[in-house]
Amino acid sequence: MPPQPDWVAVGIGDDAAVVEPARGTLDVVTTDTLVEGVHFDRAFGSAADIGHKALAVNLSDLAAMGATPRSVVLSLVLPPTLPTSDLDQLIEGLLTLASSHDVALIGGNITRTEGPLVVGLTAYGAVRRRRVLTRDGGRPGDELWVTGWLGAAAAGLARLRTPPRVKAEDKETIAACIAQYRRPNPRVRIGTLLGRNRVARAAIDLSDGLADGLSQLARASRVGVVVEGPAVPVHEDAARWFIAQGQDPLIAALAGGDDYEILLAVPRTYRRRLAVIARLFRGIPLTRIGTLTSSLTLVLNTPQGPETLPTGYAHFASS
Amino acid sequence: MPPQPDWVAVGIGDDAAVVEPARGTLDVVTTDTLVEGVHFDRAFGSAADIGHKALAVNLSDLAAMGATPRSVVLSLVLPPTLPTSDLDQLIEGLLTLASSHDVALIGGNITRTEGPLVVGLTAYGAVRRRRVLTRDGGRPGDELWVTGWLGAAAAGLARLRTPPRVKAEDKETIAACIAQYRRPNPRVRIGTLLGRNRVARAAIDLSDGLADGLSQLARASRVGVVVEGPAVPVHEDAARWFIAQGQDPLIAALAGGDDYEILLAVPRTYRRRLAVIARLFRGIPLTRIGTLTSSLTLVLNTPQGPETLPTGYAHFASS
Lengths: 319, 319
Prior knowledge:
Two copies of one chain form a homodimer.
Chain A: E1 8-10, E2 17-19, E3 26-35, H1 47-63, E4 68-78, H2 84-100, E5 104-112, E6 118-127, E7 143-147, H3 152-161, H4 168-182, H5 188-197, E8 202-205, H6 210-221, E9 224-228, H7 236-244, H8 249-255, E10 262-266, H9 271-278, E11 286-293, E12 298-302, E13 305-308
Parallel strand pairs in A: 4-5, 9-12
Antiparallel strand pairs in A: 1-2, 3-6, 4-6, 7-10, 7-11, 8-10, 9-11, 12-13
């Protein structure tokens, strides 16, 4: 275990952990649980990948609130088939990502079970009161922006589920997508920047896909959306892979989950301020993909004309 | 869902919950997960009992830190065999106990699985910095005190596991023990009182039994213990049941888990102050059972002479 920061008064090993709240901030709390057979397959990656991803999912939720992550507690339910070395690697994968974002593991709980592996995490962050980014602040006319690229994790997962019939030259292409599926990069720094700069009226993370995120943000804000299909930043390798499979990359990217990007609603008048902040995103693009409307409908503009945004896809297990 | 207290800025339904920390206090965080087949059997109680107990286990950990509980987040992993009405009852059982202690459910997560039912809870409380009760503050000469009665839950569980060969007149006797197993009462108010009054140097909850608690407190404080066997407050009905089964009630009560009582180490000079506080415990007794020593050994004094304290019993799943 790495040394605990000085704001941790009591760490692992007592009945509970005790931490000093960050001065002048609110506590942000999120929980997400990864269950074997539902959220991951042990054949599709390493134990370290599972540990990384369990934390990434939670850090993404904090980022989408504008919060800076601070600490995490872990609950593990272990099947007898899990080797001890896998347990070590899982925790190692989690701790490596944690230390890269200065997140402290402050508590935990381990149970043996005959059932599947369950990795439960509860993460805490800090945000100033007026800088909380909720889903419900969007207004008609706000522009919709998205961080990064979409669809890579979905392509990577689809490839892991498909017998390897791809040509050798395609293997390298899909490797980046598989890596994105196994080890997503939560937008921690971007979340903190967005929280501090108050350019966004609403934000949501895209753990369940872009279509789901659009639909949830619209519902919470009581608005509609128009998405410009060609503007959606589909990951280049993912697009190539979906096309090779005979699928529409845009539809696949809209439906696919496991994109830990952030969707923002930003007033049009803040476009310049947003551009200034986006320069601090260290190479992660920020792309305008549409607009909030007053009509309550979800519209996807395609080169063939407007369509209803397909929102059928959703994990049962959304947070 | 009951209405949220005004210190909850963002409750269930966004990427994360946002809460205002209690002024001038530290955050206390604990997580405990109940797994079907390990911590409970659905045949041994109702779904509401499971919801109650999952929260009780966590509130007991907070109480043993001297903290006042405030909020909780819930993570459920549901097998297909769990009826929807059981899910409702489980949450109802949890919310009923939560509201009786002014605890707010601020977030959650539900996943379907083919495996066993998993109920994960992370609970938060507040405590002032100098009032945190850890396990490691005990010193040689401190007196050991325990709240309530011990062994009832163990007797209740043993009865549920045994074919009902008991006589009719014994049924009523064991009913209280079964109730104690199914719906433990965490010592929330006592924990808050102990935290405020700073009479204890160390405290631990007895979720894994008295023997385990004594051993853990001694190890953390780097001291030994001498327990006066006849002083241990074994629950009267449990004692009768264990005797009827041919077991030593004291040994059964020492080994049995699921006692959500609190073990305290208190300087001898604070005995009068402790008595004053104990008058506020509303009928829950506080019993002196032994002393901390400098010898690092764990001794049980019995009428037959001193023995080594039996500490073999432990859940794999301690928190």
